[in-house]
Amino acid sequence: MEDDLRAALHRYDEAGGLERPTGYDHAAARAAFDVLVERLDAEFGTSCRADRQIEDASLHGRIEIPVEAVRGRAQLVVSVSNFGPMTVVSAENPGAYLDLAEALADHAADSADLQAIQGILAALGYLVIPEELLTRPYDGISDLASRYPPDQAPDWWIRFFDYL
């Protein structure tokens, strides 16, 4: 499974733009994002906070499911990349936990909530990338690494889910 996900990271990487891939269709990406927000709102019986105003980033949008609507102790966050149908699900905030297993062990997240989110993402054609995998050093084909000093090499999170 991890090999397949690493292959997906390389498949969606390209030498071109850092913020969005060649041929990026913002209207289609925004329409899909809006459907995702609607489905999460319905699933959790709330109005999720959706950040649609992201600029200068490889991240398309971010959706926060409030702690009041989930079974765990922390809000859940879904981050959507501009590159392919890639998403990350995080507890509290990206980077707060190394992975969802740690968040589950700490009761920050609940498995039923995570299964519901992952089911919605799968039904809409999104690919969930584990946050831990994105912390590995970036070894793709873009010139992203040349923009960072050698002692601060970027990782895959920066490539697909961060401000640039």
Question: How is this fold's topology laid out?
Answer:
Blueprint: H1 2-12, H2 26-44, E1 49-51, E2 59-65, E3 76-81, E4 86-91, H3 100-105, H4 111-123, E5 127-128, H5 131-134, H6 156-161
Helix pairs in contact: 2-4
What do you see in this structure?
- With 164 residues, the protein is of the alpha+beta class.
- It has 6 helices and 5 strands.
- It has helices at 2-12, 26-44, 100-105, 111-123, 131-134, 156-161, and strands spanning 49-51, 59-65, 76-81, 86-91, 127-128.
- The chain is globular, with a radius of gyration of 15 Å.
Instruction: Assign the structural class, choosing from mainly alpha, mainly beta, alpha/beta, alpha+beta, or little secondary structure.
Output: alpha+beta
- Please summarize the sheet with the most strands: 5 strands, mixed
Order of helices and strands: HHEEEEHHEHH
Report the oligomer.
single chain
Strand content: 5-15%
Share of residues in helices: 25-40%
In whole angstroms, the N-to-C terminal distance is: 29 Å
Provide the gyration radius in Å. 15 Å
Sheet with most strands: strand arrangement: 1-2-3-4-5
Quickly count the helices: 6
Task: Provide the residue-averaged pLDDT.
Answer: 96
Spans of at least 5 consecutive residues whose pLDDT stays below 50 are none
Tally the beta strands.
Answer: 5
Q: Judging from the principal axes of the Cα atoms, what is the shape?
A: globular
